[in-house]
Design a protein that fits this description.
By secondary structure, this protein is α+β, with helices and mostly antiparallel strands. The chain has helices at 25-35, 52-74; strands spanning 9-11, 41-43, 76-82, 87-94, 104-112, 124-126, 135-142, 148-157. The chain folds into 2 domains: 9-73, no CATH class; 76-157, Immunoglobulin-like (Sandwich).
Amino acid sequence: MQNQASPVEILSPTIPSNWCPTGSWSDVFNNYQTLFLNNSTVNIPGLGLVTPDQIATINQNIQNLQNEYAALAVNVRSGSIASPATGARTQTVTFSSAMPTSNYIINIVFVNDGTGTSAPAAYWSLGTGSKTTTGFSFNTNIAAADKIISLDWTVQSITSS
């Protein structure tokens, strides 16, 4: 389809010179809508050049995109570990419902109380084999000076369900 040089037109019946409804503005507008707008047509230049097969292809492409989006939206889990212990620890996360595969992205954010001295010192690492469809375990080493009040986590599947 190409861009058309002609604008879209709304073709309405001609309003006769003796048309003069009475009443409130809403009565006038509703009368106009009933008599004229409801009997109007829209002329879109070039619309007749679109074939039914092209419309079917466009509709299928839209449906495919909606399905892909829905599959991604379903495969997200998130949560928080409140008041994690300081020192070297193993944290365990269990999902409320299983992911479709263990091939997902993990994002963990260390949240401090605003007075922590060295937030970058807090780190995490994933243990080998600890990532499953029902959860994961990770190791942290949090210093007391970091004043971490929670570990916020999000996982997102990169595969469709």
